Task: structure prediction
Amino acid sequence: MSDKATIVVHSGDMDKLYSALIIGNGALAMGMEATLYFTFWGLLRLTKGGLEKGPLSKMHMLGMGKRMIKQRMAKQNVASLERLMKDFKELGGKIIACEMTMEIMGVKASDLNEELIDTYGAVGTYIQESRNAALTLFI
Result:
């Protein structure tokens, strides 16, 4: 088993994306490799300008809940999703965009923020990445 973390980012909800990036950055900071595999609604967060677009998973309340959570996070100096993503990439984190999801949802590579993506792949790519990982998560 390798010192590696792989995370399937299935949800596009803001709080769940925070969780995936915080865990991924934590793994990288502890010297592990980390890969995020973006699929279904998570993949939509990789579109240009898509990091801040998703709803809050609970108590979204037409956006009021999301604004309240963002205000509380700002008071606690929690980094933005953009900052966490930048840190993830700078620390050597790897991002895979799901090709099957792209086909199903009609997402083209040109729709995505290609600076974030290391590779495109299907389930076999994810399985190969996670085959010997010490930590695998589905968020």
Notes: The radius of gyration is 15 Å.
